[in-house]
Design goal:
- There is one protein chain.
- By secondary structure, the protein is α+β, with helices and mostly antiparallel strands.
- It has 3 domains: 17-132, Immunoglobulins (Immunoglobulin-like), CATH 2.60.40; 139-228, Immunoglobulins (Immunoglobulin-like), CATH 2.60.40; 277-499, Jelly Rolls (Sandwich), CATH 2.60.120.
- The chain is built from 4 helices and 32 strands.
- The chain has helices spanning 2-17, 233-284, 467-475, 484-491, and strands at 20-22, 28-31, 36-43, 52-57, 63-68, 71-72, 85-88, 96-101, 110-117, 122-132, 139-146, 149-159, 164-168, 174-175, 178-183, 189-197, 202-209, 216-223, 301-304, 308-311, 329-331, 340-346, 353-359, 377-383, 387-391, 395-398, 406-412, 417-422, 427-433, 440-445, 457-460, 496-499.
- The protein has a 7-stranded antiparallel beta sheet with strand order 19-20-31-22-27-28-29, covered by helices on one side. The protein has a 7-stranded antiparallel beta sheet with strand order 21-30-23-24-25-26-32, with no helix packed on it.
- Helix 2 packs parallel to helix 4 (484-491).
- The radius of gyration is 31 Å and the shape is flat.
- Residues 150-222 form the Ig-like domain.
Amino acid sequence: MVLMLSLVLSLLKLGSGQWQVFGPDKPVQALVGEDAAFSCFLSPKTNAEAMEVRFFRGQFSSVVHLYRDGKDQPFMQMPQYQGRTKLVKDSIVEGRISLRLENITVLDAGLYGCWISSQSYYQEAIWELQVSALGSVPLISIMGYVDRDIQLLCQSSGWFPRPTAKWKGPQGQDLSTDSRTNTDMHGLFDVEISLTVQENAGSISCFMQHAHLSREVESRVQIGDTFFKPISWHLATKVLGILCCGLFFGIVGLKIFFSKFQGKLQAELAWRRKHGQAELRDARKHAVEVTLDPETAHPQLCVSNLKTVTHRKAPQDVPQSEKRFTRKSVVASQSFQAGKHYWEVDGGHNKRWRVGVCRDDVDRRKKYVTLSPDHGYWVLRLNEEHLYFTLNPRFISLFPRTPPTQIGVFLDYECGTISFFNINDQSLIYTLTGRFEGLLRPYIEYPAHNEQNGTPIVICPVTQESEREASWQRASTIPETSNSESSSQATTPFLPRGDV
């Protein structure tokens, strides 16, 4: 009877979902700097080669790694996971998949999921990644005297999560303490605890205990009676005088050094500003009329007066055309195969856009494509407000002091360059180089809609000396007596920080 009931329950389970997805059954533990492995499997065993396998962070759209159409899809990953994941598919025919996440940081901690889908069915599993870091051995220092007592300081860095820190006396008893915790640029905790000890204190220990790993590190110090002998004020006065003289000459030397350094920096920034403004003036001499082609626009993009593109929440009823993009993109009616051409685009206050050029023969029916020169796209991209990057063919992050809302695009076909200018501060953002073949068209992509912040993207008229440029030149004329730091903030153009 029991066997019969078990068989019926198994058949009901299989009929309701065909298979189930199982992930880690308890939180995955990982140390900072090491790798973590997430394993998912189908039960009963099912071949997953033709299925979609998505590892995500927190929510379905935050892709950590995507396997679809029999291959990995790296262009769908969030930027912070680019180049850090590897999908192990040795047992995929048995429905077992494992993802390795390399070089763990504290920012990786949180909930993760594995979503597996066939043509008619899908399931997911959720688990937690707990990240830990074991900090340094505590360093005990003597900070000085408080009346006739001695103040000790214990420091340890590189912990995650925040450790338990305490002092212990000679018999192992806990001592009252003052503590302070800071977070470094990597999200790790630095801990300091202080203690005031009296004469005959004996052996004092500083303990740091990890919350998750049940491990602790200890340092011990023995305070001898010699430290509590009266201080010779005559000797202390001499030492203090020597230290004050050394400090005075050190400050003077540093002031001279930084004065020279700031002078060189200000001169370099002034050269960069003038160079960028000169290049922009030269580019504007090649301004051309650019109008958008409504027949190429995605159904959710509305083109008005041939200059403005607006994102609609629902697709429009538009005629089918081979020229129309399945991405939320639109190109210009004009195409270029030689010469120099310049135009300007106002991106407004949108959080996402792509601006540049593309080859006329790109596959417009492809919804998912990497916008790189290898695929016929030369674009500047804005993702989530202030992350600017392009593909050349790798990611290049750009960190502007003045976020651009209006972009100048300059194409020099024969030289194989396309330059992007920040019209807001008259600076050169970046220049892409390559080799052009065939017709190129101005390209705009408007990938997302936000009711609160979404604004139209507009092809702007180009003037040789706009009011914006004139006001910028007046603002950047700074008297010699002004603060050099303010000058550097007003004139610093985009500087790439490195490949992402």
